[in-house]
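Hi Y.,

Following your request, here is the sequence exactly as I used it, all 1014 residues.
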Amino acid sequence: MRPVAIVGLDCRFPGAPDAGAYWEMLMRSGEGVGKVPGQRWSARDFHSATGAEGHSNTTEGGFISDPDAFDNEFFTVSPREAQAMDPQQRLLLQCAWRAVEDSGIAPARLAGSSTGVFVGIMGNEWAQLHLTDYARVTAQVGSGNGYCMTANRISYHLDLKGPSLAVDTACSSSLVAVHLACNSLLSGECDTAIAGGVNVALTPALGIFYTQAGLSAPDGRCKPFSADADGIGRGEGVGAVVLRRLEDALADGQPVYAVIRGTAVNQDGRSNGITAPNRWSQQEVLSAAYRRAGVEPSDVTFMEAHGTGTVLGDMIEAKALGGLHATRSGRPLALGSVKGSIGHTEGAAGIAGLIKVALSLHHRVVPASRYATKENPALKLGAQGLRLLKTPLRLQNRTVVGGLSSFGMGGTNAHAVLESAPAYAARPGEAAEGPAAAADGGPTGVGAGVFTLSAPNPAALRRNLLAQADAVRRRRVPAGPLCWSSNLVKTGHRFRFALPAGDSAELAGALRRAAGDEDLLARLTGNPAGKPLVALLFTGQGSQYPAMTARLYQESPLYRRFLDEADAALAPHTRDSVRDLLLAGDAAVHGTGRTQPALFAVGYALASCLRELGVPPALLLGHSVGEYAAAVVAEVFPLEQAARLVAARGALMEELPGGGGMLAVRADAADLAELVDGEPLVGVAAVNGPRASVLSGDLAALARIEEALLERGVRARRLDVSHAFHSPLMEPVLERFARIAEEAGGGVPKLPVYSTVRGRLLEAEPMDAAYWTEHISAPVLFADAAAGLLEAGPSHLVEVGPQPVLTRMARKLRPAAGTQGHTVALVPGAEADGRELARAVAELYRTGLDPRWDAVYAEEDRQRQRLTPYVFSDAHRFWTRGPIRKSAGSDAVVLPSVPPTTQLRTAEPGAGTGPGEAVAVLSPAREPIGDPVERAVVEAVAEVGGYAVDEVSPLSLLYEDLGFDSVMVMELKDRIQDRLPGMEAISVQDLLPQLSSVGDLIGYLRGRTGSAVA
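Below is the corresponding structure, written out as C-alpha cells. Let me know if you'd prefer a different format.
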C-alpha cells in the first residue's frame, strides 16, 4: 500500500476540548469520566440492581461538555434548522473545519474539489427522540437526522464534490471510515480526504443494553487489560483527520503528523455469538494490515489496542496479538488503550485511537495507559510478547511503527499500521511553552510579516484574535512563519483583519490590543464588497527628499531587488548610482539631473513590488515624470529604454540656464488665461484640480503675475524648483531630446493609461517620440486625467512614489467623480521606517485584494506553522428542553423539543442553572411594524428560520445571512400567503428572483398586493 499522510487533525473528547488538551490528558494519564450530566437524562432512568430489566447499572461515563453549543451563524444555518440537527452533525461540522485548518489549508480553498468525507458513526439517538413524534416532524427534522447526513453535511457546507458517506460497523466504524478514505485516495477517487467519527450519548438505551448483556462496568470506567477490568464504560466525543497521499503532502509542503502504512478490515463470520469477538479473525486482520504495510510484526514498537476492559474481550485480543508477537525476544510489544481515560467512545473509538497514535509518533513518546499498573495476570501478557505501558515510552529518533485496532460489536474488525513521518517531511509547528520570540530572523520580503485573520462578524474576529494572541505568546517561533501560515489558513470570511509585525512578541501584544480596542480593531479590519479595480498613481517631481525609501531598501529584500534593477538600467546614462545617492541621504537628489532618474527608479521599484505581490494594476496615471514608470508598467517600452529616456530628460533640463520658476495658484486655469497670455515666457504648467493651478516660466514675469493676483485677493506661492518645467523655457532642449526619443521608441500601452498630456484615457494612441517630446513643455492636465480615471470606478487608488501627493489631490476630485475607492500610499514620506510595503499589503488585503503571499516573505519564513484552529462561538445552544420523561402508557422515551422560534443560549452565571445547562433566552420585542406587507414578510421569515422577529430586517440576505434553502423558500411562500390573503397567488418560481434580501422580497410583494392590504 502506498503511504497516506495525516496532515491535519482535531478532536474533542471527555475532559479534552481540543487536540492539545487531549494530548496533555493522555500524558498525565488523566481521565474525563464523571457523572451523567443532568442535560442528558434523569438519574431515575438508572437502577443500581445489575441485571434488572430496563435499567443500567451505572450513573457515570465519559461525556463531553456543552454538546448543545453550535455556531450556526458561522455556517449560515438558521436556528430552526440547527435545532433540528443531530448534535453529532454539528460537532462533526465544526471538528472537520478545524482539522482542515490544522492541515494548513483554508477550508474555503477546498470548495469545488474532489475532497472526500468518510464518517464513522454508531448511534442515532437524536432520531429516536425526534422522528417518533410524528406531529413535529418537519423538513428540517428530516434532514437533521440520518447517518448519511453526518458526512453529507460536511460536504455540503464545505462544497466538496468527492465521495461522501457514513459507515456503521459499531465500535470499529471510524477506523473503517479511515480505511475507506485511504483506499479512495490510493485509487485516485479523491486527492484529499476528511475521515472522522462521532458519538453523543443522548439516552440511556445503550447503557441499558450493556448492562443486560453483562458488559457494563458498574463505575462507568473501562480498565483495559487490568485485573480490575469489569466491563465497558460509555464515552463520547468527536474526531477528524485530514488525509493525503504522502507524495502529494510532501510536494505541497504540508506538515505530516504520521503516515498510515497499511489498513485492513475483515469480519468474524459465524463465531460464538454475533456480539462475541473472534480471536482468529482479529489475528488475521492484523496480519493483513502488516502485509499491506510491508512490515513484520517485530517491526511494530507499540500498539493502541481496542482494549474495552471486558474480561472476554481483553482475553481474546491479547491472544490474537500473542499469535503474532509471542516470539519477540527481549522486545515485548508496548500495549495501551485510550479507553481507560475517556471511556469507550463507540463510533468514535477508532478515530480516538488513531489520533492518539498519530500524536505519539509526532511527539515521539507513547503515553502510559491508565489502569496499567495492575495488570490482569490471567492474560499472561509477557508470554504473549506484550507489556502494558505503565510509564511513557520514549521513541527512538528513527522511523517508528505503531499499530491500532478497532473491533466492532457485530464482528467487523479493523487495523491500521502507522509510522513516524519521514525526516524530510514538514512537521506541524510545536506550540512550545515559553516567551514569544522577540528577536526574530532577518527581514521578510517586504520588511515585516502580515498576520491575517478573517471571520464572519466582528464578535467572532475579537474572539479569535484573543485565541491567537494567547497561542502566539506561548510560541517560540518567529513572526514570519506564523504570519505566512495565517495568510494560507485564516482567510475566506467577510471581515478581514491584517496587521504587520516584525517579531512574535510584538505580534502577540498587537493582537490582544486589537481585540480589546474597538476603534483600533475597526482600523485594522475591512469588509470588502465586489472585485478590486486598482489604479496606480505615479508621483512626479517635487515629491523627492534625501534618503527617500532608504529604510525600505534596507528592510525589504523585494524592494531592494527592484531598485537595484532600476539602478543598473540607469547606470550607463547617469553620472553616479541612483541607489547610492538615496542610501547616502545626499541632498543632491534635489538637482533635476538626479531627481528625475531617482523618482523613476523609486516608482518602477514600488510598482514592480506591487506586481510581484499580486496587486493587479488595472488603471494607470503618472504626474509629469511619473508617467515614465507608468509607461513601463503599461509595456510602452522596456525598462532599459525608459531609463535612457528619463536620464536624458533630467540631464538636458539641468543644463538649461537658471532664471525660471513655478507658481502655485489657488485659481482655475481659465481664470488665469488673461494673465498668462500677456506673458510669452510663462505657461500653465499643471492643472491639478478646481482652483489648483501651477504657472511656470520666467521669474520676472511670474513676479508680475503674482503681484496682480495679490491685488485680486488670489493666493499664490512660489515653488522650490530649479527650472521652469512645462513652460516655454523648455524649448531649447526639445530638439535634442526628440532625437534620443526617436531611438528609444514607445508603443501603444497595454493597460489603460490616463494621460496627463492629453487629460484623458489614451485610445490606442502610441506613447512615442512625439508624445514624450510634447510631454516636456505641455501642461500636466492631472485634474482632467484623474477625473476620467475616477469615473472608471477604481476600488483602490494606490500612490506609487516617495510620499502621498496625488491621492490627496484625487480625494478633492472624488465627490464630483462619484467614486468611493480606498486610497493607499505606499510610502508615507520622510518618516518611513521600512515596513511600508507590509502596511500596504495589509491595507490592500483588508480592502479586498488577495496578495501573492509567498512574495511577502523570504524563503526561510515560508514554513507552515500549526495555528490555533478557529474558535467557534458557544453562545447559541440547541437542545431538547426539560428532562427525559416517559410518555403515558408507553415505554418510549420522549424529550420535548424547543419551540421553533426559541433559541437556547448559554446561561449567564447566577441565572439559576447548573454547569453545562442551558436557558431559553427570547429577544425583547421591537416596536410593531406598521406596514402590513413588511410585517407579514418579516414574521414569516422569522418563523421559517426560527429567528426572533427583531433579528430579521429588510437588509438581511435570505441565503447568505439567514441560511434559507429551497425547502425553506417553499414554506416561506405558504406562510406569506396565509398572512396576506388578499394577494394574488404566487409560485416559488415567482419568488426565486426576488429573494436576494428581505427588503427585495418586501418590495416585490408590495407590487403584487396593491390595495388589498392597505
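The chain has three domains: 4-22+58-420, 534-658+722-847, 932-1009.

Thanks again,
Q.
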